[in-house]
Amino acid sequence: MSDILSSVSPSSAQEAFARAERAAAHIPGLTAGPEREIASVAVVGAGTMGSGIAIALLQSGLPVTLIETAQPALERGTGTIRAALERMVARGRLSRAAAEGAFGRLDTSLDMAAAGDADLVIEAVYESMELKQAIFARLDGIARTGAILASNTSFLDIDEIAAATNRPEAVLGLHFFSPANVMRLLEIVRGRRTAPEVLAAALAFARRIGKVGVVSGVCDGFIANRLMRPRALQADAMALEGTPIAETDRVLTDYGFPMGHFQMMDLAGLDIVTRGRTDRTVMGDLVAAGRLGQKSGAGYYDYDGRRAVPSQAVDATIAAVARDLGVDRRPTAGDDAILDRLLLPVVNEGARIIAEGVALRASDVDLAAILGYGWPLDRGGPLFWADGMGLATVVEKLRGLEERLGAQFAPCEALVQAVGTRAFAY
Predict the structure, then answer these.
(1) What is the pLDDT of residues 177-191, one digit of tens each?
(2) Claim to verify: residue 60 and residue 177 sit in the same structural domain
């Protein structure tokens, strides 16, 4: 990892992070009207994300109405919230009185009409455009005039969701990261017709609940998920080619990530990640075999409690999928080669995200990587690291990968044009 270790000093990276956090709150050209106060919130959906969002809001002092369509789901969500607050008390992170106060601010309902008086409604159901549009169409006839309607979608088109309403100016994305009561990143997705005062209110809301709001444009995956998707694709490709998944994860954790890619997938739940996919993948085969991740005791790894143990059954599954897909098994060898293959495409994607105007600035891209995916703070985000290494070096390395492995590594035009400019310095 010689290039990475030599390109960034921890102190400069941490100073850059502090600057990035301050900059994220300032949106060029944003001239909002009268400030919209958000004093009450309704959350539609009491699953993992909805419950986590409710916990974050309740902790910040906001009253929350949690809405579901079935009593068992509502009871599970309420139980999740109560259990999370109890754990905080047990760990000394919250007083008993504060926990009871937070829980006392929670109301629940099986009727969408309960969202009618809320200043902000956050939809947090699973990722189905049809379902989300149906919910927003109903909310359009329920929510009070002046209410903000937000979707917690992690990749769907906010403009399509807004089109289900007669008030697209009141619609935006509020993409929380799981666990929503812990992760500090809140992607605020500005739709084509989102009103300036709605965006300003969302930024103020993020600060109130202790999140760092990063404004994103509309695209598949927004900033953080789109940015890190190339890392996932290369991790999966290397596994099929024969690089042990534990080796890939070790290289990432040695670099400073809190966990490796495959460990992260197991924590998220493989059945959740693969929902809606129909192509043949290792992950799909593991789910079909009942290996759902940590929650089932087996995923990409076997689990002894929370300790990940490499699995011969998974190795056999990977080999079988590689054989069926006709993948040439040539493992990537060496920490530097593995890390370059995982992280250089992330830099390339970050340059595209800025060039397309999805992110306003390089520091916003790095904030999303650090706060959303655990990119190590003392390394700086991907674009800060690339600037420290030298963009000419990054382009040269990408071209070498392109020559060996294919066009997916071709440096984008924005990155090539940035060589010699310190375009990502901040």
Answers:
(1) 999 999 999 999 999
(2) yes
